[in-house]
UniProtKB/TrEMBL annotation:
UniProt keywords, alphabetically: Membrane, Transmembrane, Transmembrane helix
Superkingdom in the source lineage: Bacteria
Polysaccharide biosynthesis protein CapD-like domain span: 277-560
This protein's name: Nucleoside-diphosphate sugar epimerase/dehydratase
Family under the similarity heading: Belongs to the polysaccharide synthase family.
Transmembrane segments: 7-28, 40-61, 73-94, 100-121
InterPro entries on file: NAD(P)-bd_dom_sf, Polysac_CapD-like, Polysaccharide_Synthase-Rel
Pfam families, sorted: CoA_binding_3, Polysacc_synt_2
SUPFAM superfamilies (alphabetical): NAD(P)-binding Rossmann-fold domains
Length: 609
């Protein structure tokens, strides 16, 4: 039906309703049976005209009545009331009399019939035209405003989800009905409710949940085999980026039990805004996210340095699309850290104020097989870019390190530890502030276990885990990047900043969560233990014993300093590594990185300094 046909139909129906209301009122309040009189005729015409006039004014004929609610009822109330008042005025002008009882009854019948005609259609549609039998029975967790909006959306559209029950921990809401949907219990009853009501889908509709609260709820949902989704992030709902019915799958990142860290925007802005910033490894997982976060602070120039042209091109295009309306000069630079002259040329050409050095080889087993490449990229590459930064007058140099640099058993960890020593040595002889930032694994990075698990699940399993007792620290890429930028703003020079990674996570538990989040059962996919790989430890550390202290320099950021740096030994390895046997090179790297005559200097600065 076209809009014009729809309006014409409503005009005919409403005209009939108005006439019915008037004549029925006359019969109810009059002692005579003479219904059609001149006053009644004029009243009828006036009421019909007034009704249609106010209906057009309040856009009554544009309402979609399958979604009718209190707002539509209020519109009808206004139209009927104003129409009756208009008739009263005309009646007084023409006949100098007002039939109060007649118009009071007419107002009630008019309101009842107009409102009833609309809501009867909605009831008929919901009762006889819905496809509830073909829709998945859905359990909504959270009976607050967000959960109610979700339920209303699902009830009013023709999607494949049909809400049948709410879960809410508030005892005030339990055993009540909301939009005709019962609140059947608290979070602890999810498993029983899913079984008893044959639930086929679960939606967590509490966008303000903390990570720990979401983890608790998901663990209850994971006891079932039902697919579980959640609402978008609260800030995305508030800003209108997504609507309340755009559900997303629960991600592993949601279950880390870590709440977002608030960064010191003012302090970061002071040393990034309108400055030239260079990010090495800008095409990688960490480097690209650091670039995204830095762009939000409006640097004058953002230099995206990397060895792989495709990844640099991708991050450049992404940043141009996201920040194209801002005056940020994006400069992609293809360069190899191992080329000392190239590093000097780049630094002298752009003279950055701040450098974030994220480029590195990070894959532990691969570096065990190729220790020479770990030395060239991680150790020599870091030395080259650090020296070039010092010679070109960079103000702050931030190197991304790793928890594998602590008591390293791997080549990768050893080269990272030696790179920290190089950075701290540079700080003692340079005007540039050199600092390192240590953290553990990040979820979603290249080489992360999560993509591997997902691929294995897609193939039907099994998911491979090296050891049942293997544990790691995990952090999301955005959180790690924000803390790295914050650490750079706190730098005095020579520090090793250590990010608080929270509690360590067992890899096997992570694998189980990924399996459950994919909608599969652990029994179907299976978990296979393959044994610890070369260079791996069962657990990682963020600080050696001598470095451990409780003071935080900033929320989730600790700090320590190392005194003895073994520069002669490092230079010897750099000068001779190509001549050494692989086993000898590996042994020398690990032994030097694990030297114990190290002391810690307590942090002497505060956030206000």
């Amino acid at each position: 039906m076209t809009f014009r046909q729809r309006v014409s139909l409503f005009i005919v129906i409403d005209s009939s309703i108005v006439l019915t209301a008037i004549f029925l009122s006359k019969m109810l309040v009059s002692s005579t049976y003479q219904v059609l009189t001149l006053p009644i005729f004029i009243t009828s015409l006036t009421l019909i005209a007034s009704h249609h006039l106010y209906s057009l004014l309040f856009k009554l004929y544009r309402k979609a009545w399958q979604y009718a609610s209190i707002g539509e009822l209020l519109v009808i109330l206004k139209i009927v009331t104003y129409s009756i008042l208009s008739v009263v005025v005309i009646q007084q002008i023409l006949f100098q009399t007002i039939h109060v009882r007649l118009y009071a009854v007419t107002w009630m019948l008019h309101l009842l019939l107009i409102g009833g005609s609309r809501f009867v259609w909605r009831m008929y549609r919901d009762t006889f035209m819905s496809n509830d039998d073909n829709r998945k029975k859905t359990l909504i967790i959270g009976a607050g405003s967000a959960g109610t909006m979700v339920a209303r959306q699902l009830l009013n559209n023709e999607g494949d989800l049909h809400p049948v029950a709410f879960i809410d921990d508030s005892v005030k809401k339990q055993k009540l009905d909301i939009l005709g949907i019962p609140v059947v219990g608290g979070v602890e009853s999810i498993e029983n409710v899913v079984t008893n009501l044959n639930i086929e889908h679960i939606i967590i509709a509490i966008p303000s949940l903390s990570k720990k609260e979401l983890t608790v709820i998901f663990q209850e949902c994971a006891k079932t085999t039902v697919k579980t989704q959640t609402l978008p992030m609260l800030e995305h709902l508030v800003t209108g980026k997504v609507s309340v019915n755009q559900f997303r799958d629960v991600q592993v990142e949601d279950l880390l039990g870590r709440d977002p860290v608030e960064i010191d925007i003012t302090r970061i802005s002071e040393y990034i805004t309108d400055k030239t910033v260079l990010v090495s490894g800008a095409g990688g997982s960490i480097g690209s996210e650091i670039s995204r976060q830095i762009a939000k602070f409006h640097p004058k120039k953002l230099i995206l340095l990397g060895h792989g042209e495709n990844s640099i091109y991708s991050i450049e295009m992404e940043l141009k699309e996201a920040f194209g309306d801002q005056e940020i000069e994006l400069i992609p630079v293809i360069a190899d850290l191992q080329d000392e002259k190239r590093m000097l040329i780049v630094m002298n050409e752009f003279t950055p104020d701040v450098v974030y050095h994220a480029a590195a080889h990070k894959h532990v087993p691969l570096m065990e097989r190729n220790p020479e490449e770990a030395v060239k990229n991680n150790l020599i590459g870091t030395t080259n870019i650090a020296k070039a930064s010092s010679w070109s007058g960079v103000k702050t140099f931030v190197m991304i390190s790793s928890d594998k640099a602590v008591n390293p058993t791997s080549v990768m960890g050893a080269t990272k530890r030696l790179s920290e020593m190089v950075i701290q040595s540079m700080d003692q002889s340079s005007q540039t502030k050199f600092v390192a930032v240590r953290f553990g694994n990040v979820l979603g990075s290249r080489g992360s276990v999560i993509p591997l698990f997902k691929k294995q699940i897609e193939k039907g399993g099994p998911v491979t885990v090296t050891h049942p007792d293997m544990v790691r620290f995990f952090m999301t890429i955005p959180e790690a990047s924000r803390l790295v930028i914050q650490a750079g703003a706190l730098a005095k020079g020579g520090e090793i900043f250590v990010l608080d990674m929270g509690d360590p996570v067992k890899i096997v538990d992570l694998a189980k969560n990924v399996i459950k989040l994919s909608g599969n059962s652990i029994e179907e996919i299976g978990i296979e233990y393959t044994g610890v790989r070369p260079g791996e430890k069962l657990y990682e550390e963020l600080l050696v014993d001598e470095e451990k202290h409780e003071e935080q320099i900033y929320q989730n950021i600790y700090i320590g300093k190392t005194a003895n740096l073994y520069l002669d030994e490092i230079n010897e390895i750099i000068n001779t590594f190509l001549e050494l046997e692989r086993d000898t090179l590996r042994k020398k790297l690990v032994e030097l990185a694990n030297a114990k005559d190290v002391r810690v200097v307590k942090p002497s600065m505060s956030i206000s300094s």
